[in-house]
Amino acid sequence: MPSVSRTWAPRGNTPHLQVAGNWDKISAISGISVSPKMKRLGLYIRFHPDKNIRQGEVVEFLTYLQRHLRGHIVIVWDNNKTHKGNIIKAYLQQHPRIHRYFFPSYAPELNPDEFVWTNLKRAVANSVPKDQKHLLRTLSGPTRRLRRSQALLWSCIRASALPWIQTK
Fold first, then answer.
1. CA distances from 38 to 69, 92, 99, 158 (A)
2. What is the pTM of this model?
3. Which is it for strands 98-102 and 73-77: parallel, antiparallel or unpaired?
4. Cβ neighbours of residue 7 under 8 Å, at least 6 residues apart?
5. Residue ranges of the domains in the chain?
6. What pLDDT was estimated at residue 6?
7. Most distant CA pair in the chain, distance
8. What are the φ and ψ backbone dihedral angles of 20, each rounded to 5 degrees?
9. Would you call 129 helix, strand, or coil by DSSP?
């Protein structure tokens, strides 16, 4: 289903949103990186058409992060069972520079990444992609804009209920 938000229409003319396409889904995994001195933020996203995010996709994402980030990597995850499986545990044992911690159960308000998805969903609300490729193209502009904007990424951090302190 498309993401729908409030819109304008002439009085008495209810807007109708046509639903196009007949695809299953696009799953995504993402994370915000914070530099050690909290000077720079980064956004890392991977989209997976026709797939659920399973342990294999999580391992792929962790490998992707290791290619792009130097030094120790601290991951703070929700309590999704995908993040706790045996494949993940084995991978983390082989890669000691990754340290993981978990948010409390049912605490999306603590997770800055939730605000990334709120931002992206808002950016594509009321669009009518024809298929998965069109949806990915529709997401690419807002994703690129968010990735390039330190102000938008900091707004995702500040929107979370975590006790962040920005040094600038």
1. 14, 25, 18, 13
2. 0.79
3. parallel
4. 15, 126
5. 26-159
6. 65
7. 62
8. -110, 165
9. coil
SS3 28: strand
The tokens describing 84, both together, are: 């706790």
Q: How far is Cα 51 from Cα 130, in angstroms, rounded to an integer?
A: 19
The CATH code of domain 26-159 reads 3.30.420.10
Residue 104 neighbours by CB under 8 Å, 6+ apart: 79, 110
Long-range pairs, 52-55, Cβ under 8 A, ≥24? 52/25, 52/27, 53/27, 53/28, 53/29, 53/82, 54/82, 55/82, 55/85, 55/87, 55/88
Mean pLDDT by 10 residues, the chain (168 residues): 63 69 76 86 91 92 94 89 91 95 86 90 81 87 94 91 63
Which of 22, 51, 118, 112 shows the shortest CA–CA distance to 76? 112
What is the chain's length? Answer: 168
The Cα angle at residue 95 between residues 33 and 86, in degrees rounded to 5: 100
29 sits in which H/E element:
strand 26-34
Classify 145 in phi/psi space as left (phi over 0), alpha (psi -120 to 50) or beta. Answer: alpha
For the CA atoms of 154, 67, 61, 121, the dihedral, rounded to the nearest 10 degrees, stands at 30
Q: How far apart are the first and last CA of the chain?
A: 41
